[in-house]
Model the fold of this input.
Amino acid sequence: MKIICTLFVCCLLLAPQAFFAQETGTSEASDIVLTVGDETVTLADFDHIFMKNNRDSVVTVASLDDYLELFIKFKLKVQAAEALGMDTVATFQRELAGYRTQLARPYMTNNELLQDLVLQAWERKQEEVHARHILISCGSEAAPADTLKAWKRANALRTRVVNGEDFDAVARSKGGSDDPSVKDNGGDLGWFSAFQMVYPFEEAAYTTEVGSISNLVRTRYGYHFLEVTGRRDARGEIRAAHIMIRLKEGSDVDASTKAESKIGQIHGLLSEGISWEELALKMSEDASTSSKGGELPWFGTGKMVEAFEDAVFGLTEDGQISAPFQTSYGWHIVKRLEYKAPASFEASKREIEKKVSRDSRSELTRASFIENLKTEYNMALETGAMKGLYRAIAKQDSVFYPKHPVQGVRSSDLSKTLLRIADETATLGDFVDHLNGTKIRNANMGSRAVADEQLKLWSENVLLDYEDVRLEEKHDAFRLLMEEYHDGILLFELTDEQVWSRAVKDTTGLEAFHANHTEDFMWGARADVRAFILADAGLAKKVRKALKKGKDLQAIADEANASNSLAYRLEEGLFSEGENSWADRVIADYTTGSLAMASKGLTFVEYTAGGDEIILVQVQGIRDPEPKTLAEARGQVIAAYQDQLESDWIEALRSEKPVEVNRTLLHSLAD
Done:
């Protein structure tokens, strides 16, 4: 059970790589290191699997032999599962297909470009940019006429700024920026770093010189242009606490003066030694943090208002407290709790990879991958075949809407080749089937424009599907990992049926196994003791006397613990060696003959502890080694019974399947 779990879990935890089992008979005989039944394993494949599961180990002849034995058992069980048809069950196929979808992702992108983007993002996170922008709203699905109108408007505003008009004034002017916040900030976005803006905007910010105006940038929000007003080294992250006196927006001078005076008084109390936590709880007007000593979550640039960030990052040591300062929320005092500098590339690489894969940057890696595939497979669109579709949809007012499929395309047109990928083709009819099976909504585009857009998406997806089914033959690592998943799922299901669940459910077999192996499940010598941990010898004498006379000990305990709660303590029970230190000493003394047992539980032993403390042990009995009942040893018995079932199963499988090993070839892998 442990071996199977290890092999299976290892393949689940390793980085995505592979697919189905390699067909037999495709390798040279000189490359075969193992044959199990009709299945052969090449030296290269075995080496790949061995090294993946023994990365940090020295490769020796012994380690190779040991691992091969595990691998043979693994293969025997998988073949048994296949013989039962477990790999044809729908639930198995769905589970494997789900894993394959996940594992294929790294192979369906431009990994070289991905790593370049990861490095670029990390480098950008080492720097922060200050910029302001003007936005002209334009949705990603806007009609061409509306898109052009937005572009012209944005370009006109940019020209005004380039020609010397004040950026803030242009942003706030009638017909200026569509960003709702412009009325408050004049388009000023403050400081930001990688991943804090959509990628096209970030790209413009990091590639525009300080003091310069960028070209127009298209994002999903519309057209922007921006002015970069500053750059600085990244600040990292900080954890801080604050005390705040709130000041409502639009407050008069008197209210502001009172707030400033109050925060000054609090700062004075801090100087006099009053604790930060006490003042935060009693004086801070930030209800969400006052009960926690004013503590805020970790934050970096762009998470707080700029004045607050400047004050906190201006503190140079943990525990340092700022002077009072004002923000748009009121007056504050901050205390630096902890600081983290920007992370190194290696420390942050994995997190950045995840962000890049979720960011619009991933569209670049996908597009690049598709372009590479187009070249590799000589993809070509026979756009002339679209004429028949154009003719048909021109006659339909509601084409592409639900319950209104494309109609009227001639059968001779439907059979025309529209797409070529390597030696395979797809027809216009295939594309029409796609259109009729797709919910398409875009009231801003004409039918022909929608058809052209869908043709691009459809042809790219057909190309990706073409690549997907060829991953096994193109990438050995992918093939091998998927083979492990295939085998691992089968192995888990059959082993559960043959060993794990069977051992639990087979009550009769379990009882018989226990009866035949009682000596394997024994109690050692056990002491039935009551250990009184007492403050001094006087209390020990008092307790011993009460025990001999059979008196109630509660009154003694209450009296002793009235002034010292640790003066009287009790540990009692039936203990095996290793469970209780006082019981262990009793068993040792009994075993060596230095402890003689009196009747009626009147055997007492005293041990000294630290200081004046006395351990008074009342020994009520010593039980010699004896077998555990099934109830007492159930977990151990089930585990041993599972081992027995697995051993018997492997022996039976070995008798059914021939196993051949080329030891000379295997041992060639040893260091």
Summary: The chain is about 50% helix and 15% strand.
